Structure formats: structure tokens, C-alpha cells
Amino acid sequence: MSDYDFDLFVIGAGSGGVRSGRLAAQLGKKVGVAEESLPGGTCVVRGCVPKKFLVYGADFGGAIKDAQKYGWTVGETRFDWPVLRDSIQKEVARLSGIYSTILEKNGAEVFRERAEFVDEHTVRLATSGKTVTAETILIAVGGRPWAPEIPGIEHAIVSDDAFTLETLPERVLVIGGGYIACEFAGIYAGLGCKTTQVYRGGRLLNGFDAEVRDEAGVVQEQNGVSVKFNLSPTEIKKTSGGYIVTFDDGSKIGTDVVFMATGRKPHTKGLGLENAGVDVDEHGAVKVDKYSKTSQDNIYAVGDVTNRVNLTPVAIREGMAFIETVFKDNATAYDHTQIASAVFTRPPIGVVGVTESEARKMHGDDITVYTTHFRPMKNVLAEKPQKVFMKLITQGKQETVIGIHIVGDDSAEMIQPLGICVKAGLTKADFDATCAVHPTISEEIVTLKPREINKTTVVT
Ligand code: NDP
Fold it and tell me: Which residues are the signal sequence here (predicted)?
């Protein structure tokens, strides 16, 4: 019988925290969970879920136009932001309620307040002032948007604010070239805003395959996003009619909303980690070993707060591995390789495995690259220029598939089963032996031919 109030106390009811808390409670453990905001965390409340609804909303504008090419007569159309915003918020509230209920139904106690460490076994609940003790504590507090401290930064919004805007701006300026910047620039353009995306580098989506990064630029432009490269903001000034943003080359852009999508940081500030002997790295991320254990033996951390692979399903898997390790006597380290993911540009980007430059770094010339670029049949009748890009990278004589990258309609759906193929170590021969499903976009993945390039032409 433990001397502590709880067997497990979870700080943060996001994806990783809720899964861990529920599983521990289902094992009969006494579980407490603290959440200062709405249960569900970034993904459900101010991230993946409401964002995906916005993407669906943005896509309808183009679909209405395309419908006319398919014979539909379309009357007057207009977009009503409050309708979409409020429907999404209603669904977010419903889902958040489910997250809370799922914990409580399984016997966990949920504290709707902030928790901070007093020592390695004790946390203080900020609103009630109550202290509780736990044998094991899980830090699952996630991350928060971060923006550089330039003059006037207080005028900018971040992704947290984007879902509840009072009105839809006429002009939006999105700063950044990562996931959030690309997704939101695509959303705003689709909803009819005059959208500019400014990135400090020369190609969007740093870290992605070089050809995918080029395609991402094309996708944005085709959606009407004006993309400007090699510029960093230095100042935001409020004017009577909006904001003027100045850049490091002296140029200026006027806008109604400045959206800083310049990254996220682990949310460890003020958590009292120093009281519990939990070490953080230079970015404030909780340092963990492969079992998600921190520098303190009874304290673990999962999800974005550890800044490993910052994706919801990864936080969930880390949480499941933590439960196996701590409560099922089955030391389990989650494997962070070959994780499929999608960027919800319009159309989306689906990727799994290594990029071409990573493959070359690891295997030199012992790789084969297959690509195709084609206009999907739906766009032919719609008279739209958008093409699908596919790239498959294999390694060795046996041609094990080590990377797949797709830019195009339904790529986010395709990449999930393709992720199974890569994780399972399938070869190009396995793909070739699979009969195509016709007529689909995905059939191209089983008929790919090698890219006709000189092997020394490295795409970086
Ligand atoms: P990212 O790290 O993807 O992008 C941040 C962007 O901001 C980069 O383009 C970066 O440039 C730029 N930047 C950083 N600092 C500055 C600065 N001082 N001035 C100007 N630009 C700057 O972060 P996001 O916030 O977009 O997303 C955070 C994480 O959340 C992602 O990495 C991903 O793991 C996750 N996420 C996943 C999604 C999905 O799965 N669909 C959707 C949204 C988020 P540079 O590239 O040069 O560093």
C-alpha cells in the first residue's frame, strides 16, 4: 500500500497525459490529473482538430468553383466566418468533455487547475492551494507557440488565437515556413483572405525532402498565397488601418493580422522542475532517457514537453510505452523512427521515412529514387493545374523502401498505410507485385519508375 495520495499524478491532460492517465487508471492505479486549460490539450483544443476543420472549410471554396466544371449551376456564394468558427468551437467543447469523462469514468480524479512541483513527490494545485503527493509523476504539459521579441510583437497573434478571431481579416501576413505557417496560410487563402507568407529561408518546410519543399512553394502560390523568401520581420507597427511589418531588408508589408508561426517551445517555465530535480535542456525541454524517464527516478515526461518528435500520435505512443515500463513491468522504449506525418496544406503533404539527402548521407549512392509528377484526373476536368508529386526512395540491392513523400490530394490518407509498408521493411518488389487500384491517385505508388538523373545530382 503506497503512502502517497496517488500512484500516478499526471500534469497536463493533452494527448500523452490523457492516454497515460486512462491506462494507469484501467490497471487499477489511483490516478490524479491536473489541467489548467481545457482537457484535450493543444491537439484537440487549439491544434490538429480545429485546424483540420478549418482546412475542410477552406477547401469548399475551391470545390464550389470546380463543381461548375462538372456541370453544377452554382448560385451566389459567400463565406461566413462566425458560422465555421462557432461550429468548430462547439465540437472542440464536445471533444474536450469526452477527454475529461474518459478519465473520470476510469476512476481518475481530474483537477481543473495548474499544478507545480513542490518536490519530487509533491505538486501544489495553483487555484485551490492544495498539495497532493504521488509515487510517480508524469509531466505531459506540451508546448506553447513562441515568437521572437521584436518591437511590436504584442500586436501579433499566434496559432492559439487563430481559432477564435472575432472577424476574418481581409489581409493576413503569416510569418514562418514550418507546419503551422504553411497550413494556416493555405487556410486563410482558401477562406478568401489576401494572404502573404514570409519565410526567413529560401524553401518552405525546413527538414523536409528538397523536392517536397519546392512543391510546397508551388502549392501555396497555386492557392493564391504570396510567398516571400529570405526575409525576417524586425518590427510591427500598429496603424489606423491595421499593421505595418518591417523586414530586415527594409521592405514593409501592410496587413490586418500578423500571424507569427515561428515555432513552439516546451511549456516548462514556472513548473517548479528545479524543486523536483528534473533537468531541462537549453530549449527548456525536459531531458528524458529512452523510457521517458527524467533525471529524477520517479518522474517521467512524454509529448512535446520533451521536444522529441512533436506530434500527437507520438505523445500517445510515448505514454503507452511509459505505462508498460512503469506499471506493467515491461521496459518499453518507443521507437521514434519511420513515423508517418502529414502537413495539411491544400492539397496536403504526406511523408514517411528519410528524405533523399538523409538517404544519401546514410547510404551514399546505394539508393534509388523513383518519382512521378502528374495531374490527377479530378483536376483535368476542373481545368486546374495542380499536380501530384510522389517520391519513393529505396536502399540497397534488395531495394528496401526507406522513404515515401507525396504532395497531392489524399496524400495524408495514403501515407498512413504506406507508413506500415515502410515500417515493415517492404521492398520495391513488394510494391511492384501489388496490383493497382484503378483509377486512383495512389495506384501510381505501385508503378513508379526510377528518376532519370545522374546519380551524382544530389537534390539537397
Ligand atoms: P516549425 O518548427 O515547423 O516552424 C517554425 C518556423 O518559424 C520555421 O520556418 C522557422 O524557420 C521559423 N522561425 C523560427 N524562428 C524565427 C525567427 N526568429 N524569425 C523568423 N522565422 C523564424 O514550427 P511550427 O510552430 O510550425 O510547428 C511546431 C511543431 O508542431 C512542428 O514541428 C510539428 O512537430 C508540430 N505540428 C505538426 C502538425 C502536423 O502534424 N500537421 C501541424 C502543426 C504543428 P527555420 O525553418 O529557418 O528554422
Answer: none
